Amino acid sequence: MPASPIRKLVPYAEAAKKRGTRVYHLNIGQPDIETPKLLLDAVRHSDFKVLEYSHSAGNESYRRKLTEYYGKAGIDVNHNQIIVTTGGSEAILFGFMACLDPGDEVIIPEPFYANYNGFAVEAGVTVKPITSVIETGFALPPIDEFEKAITPRTKAIVICNPNNPTGYLYSRGEMETLKKIVLQHNLFLFSDEAYREFCYEGEHISAMHLSGVEENVVLMDTISKRYSACGARIGALVTRNQSVLDTVMKFAQARLSPPGLAQIAGEAAMGLPDNYFDTTKAEYRLRRDTLVSRLNAIPGVYCPNPGGAFYAMAKLPLEDADAFCQWLLETFSYKGSTLMLAPASGFYGTEGLGRNEVRLAYVLNSEAIHSAMDCLEKALEAYKMEQAS
Amino acid sequence: MPASPIRKLVPYAEAAKKRGTRVYHLNIGQPDIETPKLLLDAVRHSDFKVLEYSHSAGNESYRRKLTEYYGKAGIDVNHNQIIVTTGGSEAILFGFMACLDPGDEVIIPEPFYANYNGFAVEAGVTVKPITSVIETGFALPPIDEFEKAITPRTKAIVICNPNNPTGYLYSRGEMETLKKIVLQHNLFLFSDEAYREFCYEGEHISAMHLSGVEENVVLMDTISKRYSACGARIGALVTRNQSVLDTVMKFAQARLSPPGLAQIAGEAAMGLPDNYFDTTKAEYRLRRDTLVSRLNAIPGVYCPNPGGAFYAMAKLPLEDADAFCQWLLETFSYKGSTLMLAPASGFYGTEGLGRNEVRLAYVLNSEAIHSAMDCLEKALEAYKMEQAS
């Protein structure tokens, strides 16, 4: 079982803080946006007497309301096609376990969300990465890269759209390409759409929008990022494939039920106004624009403009981003501050890739992003000098 | 992946209710005891703004308070030896996954909690049941039954103490026997102590009380039954084995964090008075006494007196309890009521065992238990007549 690549720097960050250094956390996707009061108040004003198990698939009232949410996103499903999970994490795990046998292979464009590795280990399946590159902004790799990677043991493709860690938003053309591949090779298409609501350039094309792959597509979803409610641990697995639903229900029944208090919050979120995301999206877009322009203004740094989510990948003018990220926390400070970044190497399945790249989560307001970028600029200068000496 | 044996009767119960028949639910361990107001109020009065991820091992403040809880139960652990999980379910799954490799075998005295099967399938391990029998009240099977079942692939023994489904409370002598076996064969001892606080005959001997097996014992725990908070989904894996803790932490990090709102409730529970369980235990003891005496007064029925938990197993004067339980819901009613029982066959790993046994959860007040037993008495008469005709 692999350790979390982001969390290995945590002790260094803690030591920096103990020394009195302020640390700008651009390393982790924990949004600073407030959880809508409507969600928390629903829990605070609840008046039940016994905190009982819910239905293993989640409360029916919540699932019925979720169908309306999905309907507005152009996804036509009924409440029996939704299984509420303990975070998006459990949706991914259940999807892997229900659809794949030990020894099966899944293809994932890299860089990818590092915890897919962990869930693959838990399900006994092998991840076959195919590489997307920073020069194309991490677009979907060409179709022949998929063809080369497919073996008789390949059972699924996993995408995250918009993408964590790259922020890339797949185009309609790319989604159609994926459809073609999964149909041709009879694969599942697992689509992690945790960041669906955060698209800044063009429309979100869900895997659930594709017609003709109803039996292939399994949507993995979560309220964590959407409503800034990461600690709720409420997600959903959504599919029109009845036999997948039947198998997932067995896993769901084994763990009895998803969290009850947090389902109240999730259901309350269905009452948010349709324009709720406008403000949040405007805020994230401002941050993205700030971050991307500041990064590209630093000599030797390159950061493609991400179309969605709240992550950006940047290439740094150095050889070992892991060492640099540790140095930032261990050694560096500017005006009493430093920053924490996620080295990109942990997001690649192929050994040696992404060594000079980092992921930045724009989960701080733009003022803090400016200060963090001031730090980064000075840090890169200082690091270069130190390396040269 | 096996389906839940209890839930297969659910559609029949729903149909009975639609016909207007009252159903006494003795089939599932959902207590009717109110969740202590202190727990729910802590959530209702919380005033944070962002529902963030907690530490993957659970909030440190909660884990520190849990050490005091365990201390009072004679279990000396520090907060780094506790990993907060999403219900006891996840503690079981993490224990299996962290300690066992696919193909390994675990020995479990049967009848046992049916979901162990599900978690074993998820972890790719094989359950080897050894049989405990109703004639001894489901005492631990003799040591040579363990010896016969142990193979080179055996890696662990799983016990549930006090036991679900039998209510059996293991004696100090039996716990010492288990210690001897795990030491001799270098096995893990997984101890599910979800019902620790509900012991009516004698003292609870935790696996964590045994000395000399610090590296072997993994405690799986939950607040679900203890505080009637099944829907919270807060449990814990506790062990003094550092390498198990390290591996479990990787699984914990992959799923990010346990539920946040419910951890507030769990932590608040640490403020309940020491005598909190007295009332609850007195209530359960009354129900148990009612249930057991009523059962044993029915001709042909035998129910050993369970020492703990809130379950009893009974042998019925018939051949196929599965068919009878379905008939109760499909066909029978007395004064407009019927009852739902859990057929015991689903709790046995060995095919064909427990066919004439049922599990009864005494999660209803004693008045309802009396009414349910009236139903059962009449039902057994009617069923006998119907079978004979």
Mean pLDDT of chain A: 96
The CATH superfamily of the largest domain in chain A turns out to be Type I PLP-dependent aspartate aminotransferase-like (Major domain)
**CATH class descriptor name of the largest domain in chain A:** Alpha Beta
The number of helices of chain A is 12
Largest interface: A-B, 58 and 58 residues
Main sheet summary of chain A:
7 strands, mixed
Could you describe the 3D structure shown?
By secondary structure, the first copy, chain A, is of the alpha/beta class. Chain A has two domains: 7-34 and 276-388, Aspartate Aminotransferase, domain 1, CATH 3.90.1150; 37-269, Aspartate Aminotransferase, domain 2. Chain A has helices spanning 10-18, 37-44, 60-72, 87-99, 115-123, 143-149, 172-185, 242-254, 260-269, 276-296, 321-330, 366-388; strands spanning 22-25, 82-85, 105-110, 126-131, 154-160, 188-192, 217-222, 235-239, 311-315, 337-340, 342-343, 357-361. The longest helix of chain A has 23 residues, at 366-388. The mean pLDDT of chain A is 96. At the A-B interface, helix 2, helix 4, helix 5, helix 8 and helix 9 of A face helix 2, helix 4, helix 5, helix 8 and helix 9 of B.
